[in-house]
Amino acid sequence: MTVVSPAGRGLSAALAFALTLAAAGCGGSAEGAGSAATTPRPGGTLKIAVSEDPVCLDPPQANFSSAVNVMRQLFDTLTDQDPRTGEIKPWLATSWEVDPEATTFTFHLREGVTFSDGAPVNAAAVKANLDEIVRLGAKSLFASTYLSGYKGTTVVDEHTAKVEFDAPNAQFLQATATTSLGLSSPASLAKPPADRCRAPIGSGAFVLDRLQTNHSVTVKRRAGYAWPSSLAAHQGEAYLDAVEFRIVPEQGVRTGVLTSGQVHAITDVQPVTERQFRQGRFEVLSRHNPGLPYALYPNTFRPLLGDEAVRKAVSKGIDRKQVVDVVLTSTYRPATSILTSSTPGYADFGADLAYDPEGATALLEKAGWQPGPDGIRVKDGRRLSLNVYFTTGFNPNTTILELIAQQLRKIGVELQLRPVDAAGFGEAQEKKQIDFRWGNSTRADPDILRTVFSTKFSAAAYLPATDLDKRLDRQISTLDQAGRNEVVKEIQKTVLDRGYAIPVFELAQVVGVSKAVRGLTLDPSVRLRLHDAWLAS
After folding, report:
1. pLDDT tens-digit profile of 302-340?
2. What is the pLDDT of residue 23?
3. Which residue, 99, 206, 262, 341, could crosslink 104 as a Cys pair with Cβ 3.0–4.6 Å?
4. How crowded is the C-beta side of 168, counted as CA atoms within 13 Å?
5. CA-CA distance, 204 to 184, in Å (whole number)?
6. Residues linked to residue 535 through DSSP beta bridges, in sequence order
7. CA-CA distance, 457 to 436, in Å (whole number)?
8. In this structure, what DSSP letter does residue 100 have?
């Protein structure tokens, strides 16, 4: 067996990477909001405005960032991940062993830990949680892919759980640090999945107090909590009495409630507001998202985008630097691969993504697309007109896509914008109307590529089964980081060469924070950590 110590040797070292934290302006720092503050003061309610309703607060079922921000406070995980080094650190598991093939993971659990309903956090609870994720299947969008090839969990003894897979699964240890694998009480797991969304029961530093759809979610401090992550700044109960997450979709309103003192912090700060905050009386806490950058994901089953030349021409026709310079801020970066630069295994293919309208024109003309009377290219009587479906959760999306549409028009491609909500996207996908979807995906592990591009897992992969599926599986078959990185590099190159995705820019999570807030930080997946947070006034 390969022993993985709490210090991060063995597999955790193989997963180590550098996550960039760009915390600047008015006192922001790598330590979090108000890191230079004095002695923490218990008490008070921290009020945070978030951009969307969380919808579901069950770890394996939740899909929205706002849900993860709440769940990170309610649910503990087997391990944690150091945001500076990427090392896997102890939490509910004090230590673990991984066999050389990465098929068996044995976790030794901390004693004396309980869920908020009083049930023990033991090996049987770990087994119940993992088994339930497999039963959920497609209802568990991310967690189910983390358990690919799951054979089962053996309860070795009260505090030892052995998790086995039928094939190597090198990404699993990092997955145990994600909120998607947060542990729920067995009593909670016995409820119907829909009910768990509204009544979560975890072992975290806070418990759910009140949930009002499209209005707010309030969590309160859990008395007696004594098992935070080994990365926590203190080992006792949370300092705050409560945290109120207010649902405020409009960016202008979120800014207003912060500047007027109605809340202490806001998430999803947009570029225009970021500039204002960096010059004002608020702190700006930011971190670049690991995972996939914002990109156009083409539906290769649609008639026009089934042509690789069209997909590659669209990529060459986008000026990524102009998008960042005109619409965003220096916090954001032009994409240089289908993985962001803060993701382990990232390889720089910036030269392949250079703005090249002449090259785009040559590709289209060779493929038979000729300029039409209005400048949009035509072939066999069809205009080169493509739609893009997107949500407006990230406020600049419309402006960004309008700019991209202007850029593409110069090469004779029409891009029609289709803003929708989640229901509208689902309806369009069911009717097979989507040419491009626009978005990003966050995870501090390159296996996010498999989650999104594998035709085995993703209904929105929009790809035929190809050799890419085998490589996506192969990248989790080894604990050798160098070997894994080579496969991940090949995958990135293939995705870009074939136009399976057209990356545009790297997202950053930007949080505006009042100077009254101390100790608020972001985890490696850019979610709020509030166990150490407190209010100075």
Report:
1. 999 999 999 999 999 999 999 999 999 999 999 999 999
2. 26
3. 99
4. 17
5. 10
6. 517
7. 19
8. T
Average pLDDT score over residue span 398-427: 93
Helices 320-327 and 397-409, axial angle in degrees (round to 10): 140
pLDDT at 12 over 50: no
Nearest to 222, CA basis, from 531, 521, 533: 531
- For the entire predicted model, the pTM comes to 0.83
- How far is Cα 305 from Cα 500, in angstroms, rounded to an integer? 10
Taking the C-alpha atoms of residue 29 and residue 330, their distance in angstroms, rounded to an integer, is 17
pLDDT at res. 21: 23
Helix runs in 147-304, H state only = 172-175, 186-189, 193-198, 251-259, 271-278
pLDDT category, 49, cuts 50, 70, 90?
very high
Closest CA to 72 of 93, 91, 94, 95: 91
CA separation for the pair 456, 278 (Å, rounded):
44
Using CA atoms, how far apart are residues 305 and 318, in angstroms rounded to an integer? 16
pLDDT given for residue 510 in this prediction: 93
Residue 451's closest CA among 368, 373, 531, 339? 339
Length of the chain: 537
Give the burial class of 100: count Cβ atoms within 10 A of its Cβ; 0-12 exposed, 13-18 middle, 19 or more buried.
Answer: exposed
DSSP 376-422: -EEETTEE-EEEEEE-SSSTTHHHHHHHHHHHHHTTT-EEEEEE--H
